[in-house]
Amino acid sequence: MKFIDEFRDSRLARGLLRRIEDLAHELPVVRFMEVCGTHTMAIYRSGLRHLLPENIVLISGPGCPVCVTANQYLDRAIAYARLPEVIVCTFGDMMRVPGSSSSLELERGRRADIRVVYSPLDALEVARQHPSRRVVFLGVGFETTAPAVAAAIQQAASEGLANFFVSSAHKVMPPALAALTTDGRLRIDGFILPGHVSAIIGVEPYQFLAAEYRKACVIAGFEPLDVLQSILLLVQQVRDGRRAVEIQYSRVVRPEGNPRARALMEQVFVPSDAEWRGMGVIAGSGLALRSEYRSHDADATLDVTVEPTVVHPACRCGEVLRGLCEPQQCPLFATACTPETPIGACMVSTEGTCAACYKYGRRVETGVSDG
Amino acid sequence: MCLGVPMRVVEIEGDTAVAEITGVTRRISLQLVENVKVGDYVIVHAGFAIQVLDEAEALETIQLLQEFGVQAG
């Protein structure tokens, strides 16, 4: 397939690996974190962690928006779904994530009207078709998703679609990267930065990582050769004592990002403090609806009682998301917690680190076949 | 969830388009991108094209990677 197959050529991968090996033997142990769930999946699927020289260590970070969504948000979403006359619309990954005592999937089994949509525009269509019911779209995602949701909210406002609401759990990456960088428990030499978030925000919001915190940064694409080339660029920066934000994924990411998408996002959302699973509240890392769109803000207008938050005491998703723990170190991993019976969010989402490790990583890590 | 899929634009009508990948077509919004033409590849996320794929940059990257392959011998 055009521009996919070309980036999966194993002969070229061997060439890149050899270049990385040549440079790496001059270096001490260097640790790079990927902060995008799609990168995590690509790295596990292609077995990259085990192909790299031993002193090049890859760590998975908080890159999956479903995984970093706090239990309290899920509990609120479940409370909306229990309201009479409400239709909850959500991306599919949210369905099975456990809240404190239920999940959207369980609620749907109890006859709540919960619909999986592919786009926020599909949720708008549901609102048009059911004018007597309130439609709540669960706005979960990073900068890649937020402009699409902003467009839907503006569209609802312009149509006077008063029954369309969004519950915003959108998050932005740079404050989370700052929080990871200043967390003294984890030494990170560089970041593999998210390709599609960067397609929106461009290079500038990451410059502080290189300039202030001396982190090597490369915006990477998602095919195996993209990730390998990005690791080579990171290794080159470390070897040269240089720190910059470079774009490997130049076929999609422009230095200025996507100004039109950003403008739309800024028209509809305003930065807010947001709670991340495992990382607590990070100032300025969320996106709330601006006051002029209050009538479409589910959290500001719909009255629900949300149950007290309970987190499974043995689940280590929080540490997995901060790169402090590998999935196999969690006592629930592959025993009580599997993709079929997930306990933690990182096992539910297709982009979750535990799910990636369960599906692709165990054969190498533990000798267990994934069949 | 931030997965973006490259799709080829086959039809444009105002702010919406029909895009295709491996024989599957989908209606997408072009609201977030500028200057899209029929035949362009776009990255589609949550029903919206978020960026137009730059073929020249893609070919340049492939060429660079091929040089690594050649050097690896």
Q: N- to C-terminal separation of chain A? A: 27 Å
The whole-angstrom Rg of chain B is 15 Å
Q: Say how many strands of chain B there are.
A: 5
Overall SS class of chain A: alpha/beta
* Unreliable runs of chain B: none
Sheet with the most strands: spatial strand order of chain A: 2-1-7-8-9
Low-confidence stretches of chain A: 364-371
Tell me the series of helices and strands of chain B, N- to C-terminal: EEEEEH
**Helix percentage range of chain B:** 10-25%
Please tell me about this protein's structure.
The complex is a heterodimer of chains A (about 375) and B (about 70). With about 375 residues, chain A is of the alpha/beta class. Chain A has helices at about 10-25, 35-45, 50, 65-70, 70-80, 105-110, 120-130, 145-160, 175-180, 195-200, 205-210, 225-240, 260-270, 300, 315-320, 345-350, 355-365, and strands at about 30-35, 55-60, 85-90, 115, 135-140, 165-170, 190-195, 215-220, 245, 270-275, 280-290. Chain A has a 5-stranded parallel beta sheet. In chain A, helix 12 (about 225-240) links the parallel strand 8 and strand 9 (about 245). In chain A, helix 8 crosses helix 13 (about 260-270). Chain A is globular and about 65 Å long. Residues about 365-370 of chain A have low confidence and may be disordered. With about 70 residues, chain B is α+β, with helices and mostly antiparallel strands. Helix content of chain B is about 25%, strand content about 40%. Chain B has 1 helix and 5 strands; from the N terminus they run βββββα. Chain B has one helix at about 55-70; strands at about 5-15, 15-20, 25-30, 40-45, 50. A 5-stranded antiparallel beta sheet of chain B has the order 3-2-1-4-5, with no helix packed on it. In chain B, strand 2 and strand 3 (about 25-30) form a beta hairpin. The longest helix of chain B has 18 residues, at about 55-70. Chains A and B meet through helix 1, helix 7, helix 8, helix 10 and helix 13 of A and strand 4, strand 5 and helix 1 of B.
